[in-house]
Design goal:
Elements (H helix, E strand, L loop, with lengths): L13 E8 L15 E2 L2 E2 H13 L2 E4 L2 H4 L6 E2 L8 H13 L6 E8 L7 H8 L10 E5 L9 E5 L3 H9 L5 H5 L4 E5 L12 H10 L1
Parallel strand pairs: 1-4, 1-6, 4-5, 7-9
Antiparallel strand pairs: 2-3, 6-8, 7-8
Helix pairs in contact: 1-4, 3-5
Length: about 210
């Protein structure tokens, strides 16, 4: 484990902590998407800094051997090879108790959304002020797609996520069916565009 904060102030419980999911296979891209550079920063660092501004704290979930040299707060995926659902489980475990202290919510974001911005995340963050028992707060983009890889999850949702992983079902959208979800409509799908192929990456650069 690398880059853990220290000191009593870091162990004070917080409302929301940001988590960047990294370390996927990037098979269609042919190289690690997290380390692609845009405007002089890797997508991983760009997403980390965005979450740190919005949440005050951020942590990367991914392979230590791949990202430890970046010097950023980092935790291992507890079940490597099981997709983003496993990364979510690791984030929620960290929320429930770690060297950083507890957090009520995890704001979980995939590292490959280069158009995601602070305004969209702050809009999502406002939803934590509503008391309806939601275990997950998930954006729905203007094209009707649910966006579980840019969402808020209550720390206590870990049990349901872990139970699904133990069945061998790694589908994140199916995990949402186990949770009390609040669906939040967004007036755009641009924020949530992700990059999976070299062609999509070139298109992102062309729009800069």
């Amino acid at each position: 484990m690398s880059g853990l904060p220290s000191g009593a102030a870091d162990r004070v419980p917080v409302l929301v902590r940001g988590y960047v999911l990294a370390g996927g296979q990037s098979s269609r891209m042919g190289r690690d998407k997290a380390l692609l550079e845009l405007d002089g920063r890797t997508l991983l660092r760009k997403t980390y800094e965005l979450l740190e501004r919005v949440c005050g704290q951020a942590v990367i979930v991914g392979p230590v051997e791949r990202y430890a040299s970046l010097g950023l707060p980092l935790i291992e995926d507890e079940r490597p090879g099981c997709g983003p659902l496993s990364g979510l489980e690791s984030a929620l475990a960290d929320c429930q108790g770690s060297a950083r202290g507890a957090a009520e919510w995890a704001m979980v974001v995939a590292c490959d959304m280069p158009s995601l911005d602070e305004r969209a995340l702050r809009q999502l963050l406002l939803e934590t002020g509503k008391e309806d028992g939601a275990q997950a707060i998930v954006p729905v983009s203007s094209d009707g797609r649910r966006q579980p890889l840019c969402a808020l999850y209550r720390a206590g949702a870990r049990d349901a996520v872990s139970k699904q992983l133990e069945t061998g079902n790694f589908r994140l959208l199916e995990a949402l069916a186990r949770l009390a979800c609040r669906w939040v409509p967004f007036d755009s799908s641009r924020h949530f565009l992700n990059v999976n192929t070299p062609e999509e990456w070139e298109a992102i650069h062309a729009r800069q």
